[in-house]
Amino acid sequence: MKFTPLFFLLGLLSFSVMATDLPSRIEIKYAVTTDIGEGEIDEVMEIKHVEGKAHYSINSKAQATGMYKLIEPNSIIRHSEGFITKQGLRPVRAYEKRGQKKASVAEFDWKNHVITLHHQGHHAKEVMPDGTLDRLSMSYNFIFTGLPKHHVERHVTNGDTLQLSRYTITKEILDTPIGKMETVALTRQEEKHSKLKRKLWLALNNHMLPVRIVSVEDNGREIDKMVTEINISYKTEH
Q: Which of 33, 137, 180, 221: disulfide with 89, CB 3.0–4.6 Å?
């Protein structure tokens, strides 16, 4: 694991710094705990510079481990790709595929501000506000842009719907399997009586990487995703 100095000070990030000092590849492993079993997630983010533009791709693979794998042998594949801007990530395509089911796909048309969602054979187009993200790019967005002090809002799609999410921002010390970390915690504000939940911890001293995510999904299941390993590569492009 490679830790770097805190050059990603909140609110002080500039695109020129980002373009030259960003990692080219980030690999993160997570342990997953749910009420019915355990699993693991491997995520890889790659950053490339092509003709003066910074491109990103994120691939995530989740699968059950141990006895739980006998019950749930299928994996969950998530993908997001697009551009990096001064305002953060700008996805152009994202999808989520669970086992043998057809993938849910989101296509982002930034020229016309339209998002097209493909889910279970249905296709829908919606007006797409500035700053819209998919769930995977939301976790990595604040590597590239600063956070306000107290609250942040983003429209986020899960491939099925597009919703405005509001997060409160706090600072916490997080105890992880790879050591204690200073983090910024984003806690999504839910409607009264909602059982849904989502909280992200971003590592202040390591590129604002997502090091823990706790969520309660529509099916009522709580999922705790905790970092177990981080590997970062810095490759000079020619």
A: 137
**Lowest-pLDDT choice from 15-24, 26-35, 129-138:** 15-24
What gap in Å lies between CA 170 and CA 230, rounded to an integer?
A: 23
Q: Count the neighbouring beta carbons within 10 Å of the beta carbon of residue 74.
A: 14
pTM: 0.87
Counting beta carbons within 10 angstroms of the beta carbon of residue 67, is it exposed (0 to 12), middle (13 to 18) or buried (19 or more)?
A: exposed
pLDDT of 155-184, one tens digit each?
Answer: 999 888 999 999 999 999 999 999 999 999
Q: Which two tokens stand for residue 29?
A: 């492993």
10: alpha, beta or left, given left = phi > 0 and alpha = psi -120 to 50?
beta
Phi/psi at 113 (5° precision): 55, 50
- In the numeric block, which tokens belong to residue 232? 């970062």
What distance in Å separates the CA atoms of residue 78 and residue 167, rounded to the nearest whole number?
23
Ordered DSSP codes for 74-135 = --EEEEEEEEEETTEEEEEEEEEEETTSPPEEEEEETTTTEEEEEETTEEEEEE--TT-EEH
Strands 104-109 and 222-233: unpaired
C-alpha count within 13 angstroms, C-beta hemisphere, residue 197: 12
Structure-derived torsion over alpha carbons of residues 161, 162, 164, 169, reported in degrees to the nearest 10: 80
| C-alpha–C-alpha distance, residues 97 and 219, integer Å | 17
Interatomic CA distance for residues 77 and 42, integer angstroms: 10
Spatial neighbors of 167 by CB under 8 A, at least 6 apart, are 151, 152, 153, 154, 186, 187, 188, 189, 200
